[in-house]
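Subject: Interface between my chains keeps coming out wrong

I've been trying for a while to get a sensible model of this assembly. When I model each chain on its own everything looks fine, but I need the whole thing in one frame so I can look at the contacts. Pasting all components below, labels as-is. Any help appreciated, I'm running out of ideas.
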Amino acid sequence: EPEVTQTPSHQVTQMGQEVILRCVPISNHLYFYWYRQILGQKVEFLVSFYNNEISEKSEIFDDQFSVERPDGSNFTLKIRSTKLEDSAMYFCASTNAWRPYNEQFFGPGTRLTVL
Amino acid sequence: DAKTTQPPSMDCAEGRAANLPCNHSTISGNEYVYWYRQIHSQGPQYIIHGLKNNETNEMASLIITEDRKSSTLILPHATLRDTAVYYCIVRVGLGDDKIIFGKGTRLHILP
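Reply #2:
Try treating it as a single job with all components included. I did that and got this:
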């Protein structure tokens, strides 16, 4: 069964450093998403991406964040200058627009720890 | 904000049916009821969705009241692996519609 994959599973970085989180969505999917979950809190929407541009972004997704689909398979989330409060699990998701409903498939997540 | 209300936690004995309630009194006519679950530290997993009819798949059954203001997710024979946080979500579910997660119900399956 196809699945969303994410790398790395755990990323440790120093405050102020740039990080890139990588995702490989399911191959025939067209819509891509990033969500995050701070430890003990709700899963929060960050951004949706379709047709090589951002469809929607939340208030969390400020100028420090960017997304990119550099080739036909990868979908990345970049944080330019990490803060302590960026420590969280980051989940990538994708969906196939041609289904009659929008079932999103989530990856296993990347745990980001900012020191 | 999430448009649903769920109990924060529930217990269920292994092998019994787990019935998870959800209230969504402000649901619109074009909105579906979706259920996802999140096993500890893993990504959320889609379970089932419905519009107004009851639905069943290999994982669960979804019972939606006639007025669509509430629903119940049924796991027919709960196992220890069903221990997770279960999210009831109301959304249109087309295009790039994002998911807004609430706090969900933490289901404990007791051996």
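Reply #3:
Confirming on my end. The interface with chain B takes residues 4, 31, 33, 35, 42-45, 48, 50, 55-56, 89, 91, 93, 97, 101-109, 111 of chain A (CB under 8 Å).
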